Amino acid sequence: MNKTVVILVDNKHRDLPGCALIAHHLEKRFQIRCEMQPLESWRASLTAFKPHYILFNHLNGSHLAHFSRRLRDMGVLVGVLPNEGLNYDQEELDFAAGRYHSSAHIDQFFCWNEAHGDALKRHMNLPSENIHVVGIPRFDFYFEPWNKVFCNPDLEPEASRPRILVCTNFVFAKYQDFPRVKVDRVFRPWKDRISNFQNYWELIEISVQSRSRFFAFLNAIVSGTEYFIDLKPHPAEAQAPYKIWFQSLSPADRKRVRLRLTETIFEVLPLCDLEISCEMCTTALETWIIGKPAIELVFDRNPVFFDKAMSLCNRLCDSPEKLPDLIRRELQEPDQEDLKENRRKFLAQWCASPSGNSSWNMARIIAQALARQNEPHWHFTFQDWRRAVKLKMKNSLGLAYGSNPWRRLRGLIPGIEKSIVEGKFIQPSDVQWWKEKLLKVGSL
Fold first, then answer.
1. 425 touches 403 (CB < 8 A)
2. 3-state DSSP call for residue 51?
3. pLDDT for residue 240 is more than 70
4. What is the pLDDT of residues 402-433, one digit of tens each?
């Protein structure tokens, strides 16, 4: 009997590529059936697919810890692959390593770095054989052959002038417009456990102010250079401020500026000649991997948004007036030789020195565990069956399990920003697209 793995996907833009590549290796190399489903279906997927293995993105919640123990009692293997594994702050690292949910059962934890693995040993008492440092699977798409997945002829840059990619990371700013009770609920898990998050309203205000200052940098690039500019806001940010700025440009400037709201970072980053990020941003690491020059804009230097060690790997800029000349200098010497050793060490410490085989290593480790596993003894309640029927029905209609049709319809109203929550759910069509694309690229 072929075994089944359920991979729970939190965000289709950030997490689905890496998860799909893991599933591709499991299915094609090891003949293991994979079901990729929205994270919200964590209970429904158990009954719907009777999996031998479920891969979570975290178990930092009492409900998830309880569920993991139920899976253990059934004989279902439990794996964890974090979707955010760069925890530079010690308290954040301890939280991510299960300090407050050490009762969770984990058969395999796939870490981005050794620091996370060491923290798991301290807080979860996990044996070394249950901890696997594999790096970041989605970074495999910057290496052959998987970088061909995102080749998009429509985005190919014109050769007449350099192309600058500007990435933002002001995710906290959106909470300024949320009801206070909703914001309090978002930060409740962290505010009493991570000291940096105790005054989260101050963090929100810092993010709002930094975003406001960012537009001065952006205007300096537009007015002080003749380069092509791709502006890519973080997918979890509110889009309205960037749309308003773009519409304020003159018709001539809009011809060389593109607002990249739907494209993935894998599509636009390889096409740029220089990347600009805002303080602590994972995109900077991706820029180093593919050997592009990087500039980091500096704002408040708050430790939640700014990391000293990362800043030593980037060319820093804290003044809009300095930015155009700095861009010109870095384009003239794009290798940034003086930063290469710092970058190599940083990627080794935090990302296990990306080389394009992270997803393959994960698939191999999962397959080895499944080969040793006895058949689970599943047992389900009425509520389990009810959730499974809902999941199967939504899949048959091409809908995500957690999707709300009223939120989707509201997002179609002109002037109403689409729901960020709805935008992150994976649908059956997304999974099918990825399966077909990876199968095609893998056969080249």
1. yes
2. coil
3. yes
4. 777 655 555 555 555 555 566 788 999 999 99
Token reading at 399:
């809908």
Output the CA–CA distances (angstroms, integers) from residue 419 to 119, 235, 415, in the order listed: 35, 11, 12
Nearest to 347 by CA among 402, 404, 282: 282
Helix/strand/coil for 219:
helix
Looking at the structure, do residues 325 and 359 belong to the same domain, yes or no?
no
pLDDT at 155 over 80: no
Q: What residue has token string 């096409």?
A: 271
For 126-146, what is each residue's pLDDT tens digit?
Answer: 899 999 999 999 999 999 999
Q: Does residue 438 sit in helix, strand or coil?
A: helix
Instruction: Give the length of the chain.
Output: 444
Average pLDDT over residues 198-219: 97
Q: What is the CATH number of the domain that holds 419?
A: 3.40.50.2000
Q: Which domain holds residue 186?
A: 158-351
- Domain shared by 365 and 329, yes or no: no
Alpha-carbon distance of 281 to 304, in angstroms, equals: 11
Q: Which of the listed residues 298, 333, 351 is the one where a domain comes to its end? A: 351
Assessment of whether the complete model's pTM goes beyond 0.85: yes
Single residue among 351, 380, 406 that ends a domain in this structure: 351
Nearest CA to 276 out of 238, 225, 226, 330 is that of 330
Residue 302 amino acid letter: N
Do 169 and 285 fall within a single domain? Answer: yes
